[in-house]
Amino acid sequence: MEYGFVDCHCHISAREFEKDLEDVIQRTEEAGVKTLVAVTVEVGEFDRVLPLQGRYPDLVAPCFGLHPLQEGGQRSVDPRIGLDFTPWCAPSHRDREDQLSVFITQLGVATELQLPVNVHSRSAARVAMETMREQGVGRALLRNFAGKPSVALEGVKAGFLFSFPPAVCRNHQRDNLIKQIPLEHICLETDSPALGLHKHERNEPCHIALCCRHIADVKGLSAQTVQIVSAQNALRPFPKAQTHTRHISL
């Protein structure tokens, strides 16, 4: 029986990987990762992701998105689809309204093209989920989710998925959240090169086993069960990854 990991949110095209990308990819594959959902961090990164897909067609699955606040004047924030209502990113009500307006537009594009959404929702989990439900979004992954368990369960009812990076191993703040979300709604991510086990060290996709084991420990399950079920879960929002994970089976 063969099975593997699906990293639902990573930045394999980041500049941090340029000097030793082949070594990173080798470690990724040796760790049993079958698919990297490669999320961009800036518009200029689009043209770096596509060649990576061509170079590693059985591994890299591009995922493009733009943050509601784009570079303009002196402001620049990292581009991911979603809402970020933290005070340093959205200090005013107008900032939050501007984000929400662009988020709705992006959801409309995803719905029209029948694409899933990979959503960043920092300090805005409830608003993000309510907006997605209002816009008729069915396939959504809320990545690095840190909202309240009660809010997460609303997302579970809507069929949304939630992913967690190795950073959850640093402390137990999200253990109760992970306990309450059914395994059938959990995916794995690394967000590499960020959100690793150690704050100031570069994270890599090969470290995905860390969050897998942590989730397994919290839920009292085997790591193998979490690995297989989370990979199968990932095929719901990202069905095009099916060819990458064709060896996964129960």
Automatic annotation (TrEMBL):
Keywords annotated in UniProt: Hydrolase, Metal-binding
The keyword Hydrolase is assigned to this record: yes
Listed GO MF terms: hydrolase activity, acting on ester bonds; metal ion binding
Keyword Hydrolase among record annotations: yes
Family to which the UniProt record says this protein belongs: Belongs to the metallo-dependent hydrolases superfamily. TatD-type hydrolase family.
Cross-referenced PANTHER family: DEOXYRIBONUCLEASE TATDN3-RELATED (PTHR46317:SF3), HYDROLASE OF PHP SUPERFAMILY-RELATED PROTEIN (PTHR46317)
Protein name in the entry: Uncharacterized protein
Organism of derivation: Champsocephalus gunnari (Mackerel icefish)
